[in-house]
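Write out the 3D structure for:
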Amino acid sequence: MATRCADRTTKAIKKVNFPGIIEKLQEIQRACRLCPRNCAVNRFEGELGECQATSTVRISSVGPHYGEEHVLVGRTGSGTIFLSHCNLRCIFCQNWTISHSGEGLDCEIEDIVNGMRYLQTIGCNNVNFVTPTHYLPQIVEAIAVAVQRGFDLPLVYNCGGYESVEALKLVEGIFSIYMPDAKFSSPETSYEMCGISDYYEKMCEALIEMHRQVGVLQTNSRNIATRGLLIRHLVMPNSIDESKEILTFIARHISKDSYINIMSQYRPVFKADLVPRIGRHVTEEEMAEVKKFARSLGLHRGF
């Protein structure tokens, strides 16, 4: 089963028209609309949008990661490439030095290729691009080179959920696993947290497109993910109703077989003190209520 999945992934990615996709993504980046913020800045000329990234990829770290979901990690780890900057810039971000301050090193395409091949060589189960949205043209260019050199691991698109369906459609067939966050449901909350009021609308559209491309999460005989959609939902304090709305959407419009990691890791860090209602940890009672509601919808995987 594992071999068949790997073969199918390898064959699919080799059929991708990389030059055409890269050209279209670069065109989008020149008046940037890689995410729904649609900043329209020319990143190739060094103009900065909300994410604060130029067209030069900045990477914080490359290495095996054991803190991801077990279906990605297994015994040998998920091969993560942590990209600097972020299109969401949440005020409670635990990795704010990377996502807001841009901590990391500027890299060439060849550096990304070498990182991918290194992660494959040391036995990682996949290569996991963390916050790839704003660097998508450069990442796809690196993937094209890596595939030519024998790279064949599943690729993970690990994002905040605020994605452009236009960009996602362009990369169909490249990423085996989509791992978006599903964060907020109300415009008021997403504006408070990220300065955007259309997060839920765009997140729902993105999840539908991701599911159309890869379906529900599939695993091999070692229970390692090979293809599909893995959704993360971080439960926030005083936000039970928003959690319930998000889970209802997933059950009704994605699939009751969706793999959902309902997470309790929220901590009031960075600028969370600007919004008093998120100034504490999530309680056990809140977590129990959200999980009970998920089960009542028929959701059953991942949490």
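The chain has a mean pLDDT of 96.
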